[in-house]
Amino acid sequence: MNDSTTGKTSRSARTRACVRAATAGVLAVLAGTPALAAAQAGSESSYPDRPIRMVVPFPPGGINDLVARIVGQSLGDQLRQPLIIDNRAGAGGTLGLGIAARANPDGYTLAFGATSTVAVSPALYRNLPYDPVKAFAPIAPLAEVPSVVLVTPSLAAGSMKELLALARAKPGALNYASAGAGTSQHMGTELLKAMTKVDMVHVPYKGGAAAMGDLLGGQVQLLIEPLPTALPHIRSGKVRALAVTSPARLAILQDLPTVADAAGLPRYELMIWFGLLAPANTPRPIVQRLNQEVVKAVASPEVRERFAQQGATSAAPQTPEQFGAFIRREITRWAEVARVSGAKVE
């Protein structure tokens, strides 16, 4: 046999060996796929087997933190694993939500979402570190709360009409506080400004506690504060409450009119919602399990009672798909509010 024949035979042998190796590799992968799927299913069926972290993108003491801790305690008891609240404040809540969006999608890092960070921020931040629709798997809504229009007691305004008259008489003289750009305090006041054509100056703070502190101290004159964190200061008499932002009067503050009635603004309403999210691509069985547990937690008498004491209401049950559709509607709604009001991040 000559050298050329020997070379061809050698190359043919190497080709057949490569084909056999490749075929064996494919068969090995195919054979291993059921085992891999079974291992993943086993992991999901044992969920959770260690503590769970809930990222709350605001500092302790505010309404977000309050609702998260009420739900988190009940949820942890049901899942029989500690649920750790991880406060990651900054950039109006967008910093913490960005951290949660980049977490491993295994069900052990969850995100506390709210009107401001999920629905409002896309309309205000040009370089948002997450896409509220694509970056998360919606789990379930938690609660909703109205807000209260508060003024410092030294302000010569005992009603909404007097407040608006003062603002019109002194354009730009009144300062209003918020927990940060894009928060409910910010957008609720911008909506009020747009509907009444008054000029007030926005003073954003790093969290609701700091904003409330300066209202109490008289450094700012106005704050539209969520009811749960406003109540202690209303009851102590350290602030003056003018109206509630709900569509109807509240049993817990029966003497206060709605903004719609008190200011003659029938379309004004501000209800803040909170919900639980997971990073995108979290396994479907884990999302479904968490949805069931959240629905059970917020419907429990204990959580309902704790919410009621704070002026909050447990959210009506929704599937993950229903909650996702609600979020998309809210993003559209608040984009229009931002457009009409001209609200922006300072």
**Beta-strand percentage?**
15-25%
In N-to-C order, the SSE pattern is HEHEHEHEHEHEHEHEHEHHEH
- Rounded mean pLDDT is 88
Largest sheet: 8 strands, mixed
The CATH architecture name of the largest domain reads 3-Layer(aba) Sandwich
CATH class of the largest domain: Alpha Beta
Give the tally of β-strands.
10
Q: Please state the overall shape, judged from the principal axes of the Cα atoms.
A: globular
Helix percent reads: 40-55%
Q: Please, how many helices? A: 12
- Taken together, the total number of domains comes to 2
Question: What is Rg?
Answer: 27 Å
CATH fold name of the largest domain, please? Answer: D-Maltodextrin-Binding Protein, domain 2
| Category by helix and strand content | alpha/beta
Task: Spell out the CATH superfamily of the largest domain.
Answer: Bordetella uptake gene, domain 1
- Ranges with pLDDT <50 over ≥5 residues? 1-11, 21-40
What is the terminal-to-terminal distance?
A: 85 Å
